[in-house]
Design a protein that fits this description.
This protein is α+β, with helices and mostly antiparallel strands. The protein has helices at 10-21, 41-46, 65-76, 86-112, 118-139, 152-167, 175-178, 180-190, 193-199, 213-219, and strands at residues 2-6, 26-30, 54-57, 60-63. It is 54% helix and 8% strand. It has a four-stranded mixed β-sheet, covered by helices on one side. The mean pLDDT is 94.
């Protein structure tokens, strides 16, 4: 059975979503990134980058959530759109991988963790808003990001847009008015049974909840000279 190395954050959740959509059995292997489990030698052998998610699928070992989405969609023969849509599918996958996801993560950091840099907070929040506006414009043209059907491009973006809405730090009360097409799209994915199951994939995991110095050092070891 496929193993999904998981913590309740957007990138593992998008992998759980495709696994639920394609009805592929999987085992959730909890990785408590707040205690530093991602830095263990055993896990680094699976993911040298020390992040979640990763999967072990038989002889296949993979990390990076969007690469995993592509692998699983190709394996299942689903959620890839039409052949003619492949260039756009890859473009929107990379849009999330290199833009929306990293900027949303940094925005969350400066809103909730390092609160002493108004410039940085503004910089990342405004950039997330720009990405949401790009998505909204695209979704004003069609129901889904690529072609005429729901695809892994939607799954990749969904995890981060949903994260923004649930945390209220960008997609706040005025979100539906500012990004109506995006809101319609988000509601459509959230209504899918697989989305609810994906959000609850790690519901039974025991993980640390106290955000203290140990957590900061586990998440951002590069910030401390004694951890380099």
């Amino acid at each position: 059975m496929l193993k999904l190395y998981y913590h309740n954050t957007p990138n593992p959740t998008k992998v759980a979503l495709i696994l639920e959509e394609i009805a592929m059995p999987y085992e959730v292997v909890g990785l408590d990134i707040w205690t530093g489990a991602q830095h263990s030698a055993d896990y680094r052998a699976i993911n040298p980058n020390g992040k979640v998610p990763a999967i072990v699928d038989g002889d296949v070992v993979m990390f990076d959530s969007n690469a995993i989405l592509l692998h699983l969609a190709e394996k299942a023969g689903q959620f890839l759109g039409e052949a003619k849509d492949r260039p756009q599918l890859l473009s929107w996958l990379m849009f999330t991988a290199t833009g929306l996801g990293p900027f949303a993560g940094q925005a969350f950091h400066f809103v909730h963790v390092h609160k002493d840099s108004p410039y940085s907070t503004n910089r990342y929040l405004r950039e997330v808003e720009r990405h949401l506006s790009v998505l909204d414009k695209q979704l004003g043209r069609s129901a889904w990001l690529v072609g005429a059907s729901y695809s892994i491009a939607d799954m990749a973006a969904w995890a981060w847009v949903d994260f923004c809405e649930r945390n209220g730090f960008v997609f706040g009360a005025d979100g539906p008015a500012r990004w109506p097409h995006l809101k319609r799209w988000l509601d459509a994915i959230n209504a899918r049974p697989a989305a609810s199951r994906a959000r609850n994939a790690g519901a039974n995991l025991k993980v640390k909840t106290e955000f203290d110095e140990e957590t900061v050092r586990a998440l951002f070891p590069q910030n401390f000279a004694d951890r380099l």
